[in-house]
Amino acid sequence: MSNQSLADFSSAHLPKVNQVMRDFLQKVTTEQSLWEAMDYSVSAGGKRIRPLLFLATLDFLGVELKKEHYEVAAALEMVHTYSLIHDDLPAMDNDDLRRGKPTNHKVFGEGMAILAGDGLLTEAFHLVASVDLTSDLRVMLLEKLASAAGTNGMIAGQTADIEGENRQLDLKQLQKTHQRKTGALILFAVQAACKLAQAEQEIEDLMTVYGENYGIAFQIKDDILDVVGDEQELGKKTGSDESLNKSTYTSLLGIEGAQKKLEHHIDQAVSSLHDVQDKISKKDVSLLEKLIWKLR
Amino acid sequence: MSNQSLADFSSAHLPKVNQVMRDFLQKVTTEQSLWEAMDYSVSAGGKRIRPLLFLATLDFLGVELKKEHYEVAAALEMVHTYSLIHDDLPAMDNDDLRRGKPTNHKVFGEGMAILAGDGLLTEAFHLVASVDLTSDLRVMLLEKLASAAGTNGMIAGQTADIEGENRQLDLKQLQKTHQRKTGALILFAVQAACKLAQAEQEIEDLMTVYGENYGIAFQIKDDILDVVGDEQELGKKTGSDESLNKSTYTSLLGIEGAQKKLEHHIDQAVSSLHDVQDKISKKDVSLLEKLIWKLR
Questions:
Q1: If you read the UniProt record, what top EC class would you report for this enzyme, in one word (chains A, B) (predicted)?
Q2: B278 Cβ partners below 8 Å, 6+ apart?
């Protein structure tokens, strides 16, 4: 709640999220090989953006972080991790490197990678269904998570994404694809936190503006890094969008245009955050503001 | 509730389950191609054993079937259908024929088949989360469904199954694999119905014996048909267990031994059903008894 650094916040809370993921998966998984495949991807690091957004939003709205929040954050990261494993498969994006390590199917084979993804997705719902909150809240979270991850959310976005290969999209189509592919789960992180914080509708609406702009900014940054980023640092192959002939923010707007659009969405998000701060009388620069500044 | 035939029961209720699946998927899916891939497998027929078990158990326990029951039955069949799509993939069982039609990836490609499976799984949870029952009941159903479909259930069984290729399993290992691969979802059908019917624990325990024996009998029958069945009639390739060098009930016990074991589990299931009938004072031969007789 104080003017803490992102690094401090991360090291105070993310290890607990990681621990929940590992403990829960170990508890519910009866095949050693399956557990190893899931744990490989879950333990491969990653920026944990979605758990951070979820936890930082709760913190921003004055909620003391507890076990149930780490559990929801863990489920969210499990859904994200499943999507990476499946997206990396040869039949999809065919990536060999992820988070600086060989992709799941490169290590465990395609069959096991499909099962590991299926397992992470299913157990994410299992985890939320058994979290220590009222049934009403659990149902709310499950409904929102399934919706964000589902066929009008992340899966629809991934469908549009692979169908967009070798096809020229305009900016509106591109945005619609990403709003679902990456935006929906990011928005879940922010909105679910608002619900658990029992935020007023006006606050949730403003936070939604933050979440939507964060999602777009995140994708623009991802596109820029795919052109100018360092493979070693990113832990994944760059230039893959161009080789798959995908429309991206940089292919449509150029690097400079994309950068300008990125700034615009960061500004929108920050402005919306400041409106919330005025309403809840917080003065410190928030973790959420620091989080989005990192996309510059 | 009367002494109705299975055919009458099926034609009275299964079309409603099919309708829920199609309507829900159409409502929540924003990409036409994704919807077509999911609908292809959902509409490809199949015996609808799991929805039938669920609905017939509710009927057996005196519950009048309503919209919410068709919705749960639909979700259950969606989870089953996703598992078929993924299991048929080249990286798994590599099957070309399913329910008398080319498998999903043969028609839509591997990438889309993976996404269609992911979509059906996710939207099954979405459907249960939004079903018209109390939050407590929805959470109970979601927890049980995720557990049955998860990494100590169906996915663990499928893992053990593909790892069992080219390896000799004993009867106990084989049974453990199938208890999870097919048994868990079948047991969900029966147990979830008991919960919704508010059956006493004693009744649920007896119904669990029925469900467990049904699951084993179902798998033995499947193994026998893979050896002696007619491809045209089954709508899938036979002899695939042998070609994948899988341990099966027939490879371990011979056809005659497997048939004897099948009879044993049918008898156990029926005996347990009769115990329930004594307790709830029902005299007619139940649909559940007719359902399991069909496995002879």
A1: transferase
A2: none
